[in-house]
Amino acid sequence: MTAGHGSGDGGGRTGAVMDATERKFGRFPRDVAVSLAFLTRIPAERLGLARTDGADLRGAVRSFPVAGGLIGLAGGVLLLVVSALKLPPMAAALVVLAGLALLTGALHEDGLADTADGLGGGSDMASRLSIMRDSRIGSYGALALILSVGLRASLIAAFLPEAPLAGLFALVTAESLGRAAIVHNWAELPPARPDGLAGGVGRPDQETLRMALVAAIVIGLVAGTLAAGPIAAIVALAAAALVATSFASFSLHRLGGHTGDTLGAVEQLTAIAVLLALTAFR
């Protein structure tokens, strides 16, 4: 997660539309628009719906789980479409992941690859962070991407062809809890590089973190139950919490804190853990 997709120009028309929306509906819809502008290629800023400067983004991250759920919903709708076309399950799952990558600009996949290269190739904190700044992908990053895509595709394919609707709710659960893991690591860890994107925006406060976690728990329980039943939903929440907290501790030890790349990596790892739980316990 090396960068967001908004332009950050904060034009007058954008501000006017956002202020009108906030007066009519409260701040949360605006926060969702800001989150989607940052996490996807949706041109929310150009449409006058959001801007992603530091102050707006730092507060809007409370809606990351909701934005993640909407991203998962988009992937789930695509899953229903390709499933109706009678594609083989693995091919259908790969089409869905390709669609999600186009929607998000592969933002978190990029972070996963950079993090894997840094952690795998660096001998100390400084060298790991230096490697992570390099835009070129190395062997560790390539392997991490292969494993991430392969695991997610096979787990999504497990819902096909019998239960594509359950697969939709599994994607909503995984994408929502993955974004909650971003907020957790962002809020709980210091920036490893104060000049990086995440460090420049600033850490979300504890109230923002609590709101994000509550939203994620509600979405995870409801969507996870619809995907695979209540036991699987609870296990998925536990798996997400375990991965998020474990990776936070690992990042602090190996890198001294979080970076935009590690936030992308924890999203990918958490989504995989959630899909594993929902598939294994459904």
UniProtKB/TrEMBL annotation:
Pfam families hit by this protein: CobS
Group of enzyme by EC: transferase
Keywords recorded for this protein, A-Z: Cell membrane, Cobalamin biosynthesis, Magnesium, Membrane, Transferase, Transmembrane, Transmembrane helix
Residues annotated as transmembrane: 64-84, 90-107, 137-160, 208-225, 262-281
Taxonomic source organism: Kaistia geumhonensis
HAMAP family: CobS
Cofactor(s) it depends on: Mg(2+)
Enzyme Commission number: 2.7.8.26
Coiled-coil residue windows: none
Name by which UniProt lists this protein: Adenosylcobinamide-GDP ribazoletransferase
Function: Joins adenosylcobinamide-GDP and alpha-ribazole to generate adenosylcobalamin (Ado-cobalamin). Also synthesizes adenosylcobalamin 5'-phosphate from adenosylcobinamide-GDP and alpha-ribazole 5'-phosphate.
Gene Ontology MF annotations: adenosylcobinamide-GDP ribazoletransferase activity
Subcellular location: Cell membrane
Membrane topology qualifier: Multi-pass membrane protein
